[in-house]
Amino acid sequence: MNLPARRLDPKIRTLWWVTGGIFTLIFAIAGAVGVALDLLNPFPRYLPLLPAAFSGAIAAILPLLRYRRWRYELRDKDLFVSKGAISIEITAIPFDRMQFSETSQGPLDRMFALAKLTVYTAAGKAGTIPGLNEHEASELRDELSRVAGHSSV
Amino acid sequence: MVQKIAMTLIILASLGLFSLRAWQLLEYLMLGKPENRFDNIGRRIARDLRVAFGQQKILQWSFSGVMHVMIYWGFLVLFTTIVEAFGSVYVTGFALPFIGRWGPLGAMQDVFVVAVLVGIAMAFYIRRVQRPGRFRGSHLKEAEYILFAITGIMVTILGLRATEISLGHFPYPRNAAFASNAVASLAFDRLGAEAGRAWNTIFLWWHSLIILGFLVYLGYSKHLHIITSTLNVFFSSTASRSPGALRKLDIDMEAMSETDVLGAAKITDLSWKQLLDTYTCTECGRCQSACPAWNTGKPLSPKLLIMDLRDHLFEQGPGLLRAKRDAEGPPLPPWLPVRLRRFIRRGPPAKLRKKLLEVRDSVLGAPTFEDKPLNPDVIDDEVIWSCTTCGACVSSCPVDIEHIDVIMDMRRNLVMMESRFPKEMQTALTNLENSGNPWGQSQQARLDWTEGLDIPVLGEDGAGPYEVVYWVGCAGAFEDRNKKVVRSFARLMNEAGVTFAILGGKEQCNGDPARRLGQEHLFQTMAQTNIETLDGFGVKKVVTACPHCFNTLKNEYPQFGGNYQVKHHTEFLADLIKEGRLKIKRDFEQSVAYHDPCYMARHNSSVKAPRSILKSAGAPVVEMHRHSEKTFCCGAGGGRMWLEERIGKKVNIDRTDEALALGVDVIGVGCPFCHVMLDDGVKERGADDRASVKDLAQILEEVVIPDGAKMLPLVGVQKAP
Question: ipTM score here?
Answer without folding.
Answer: 0.72
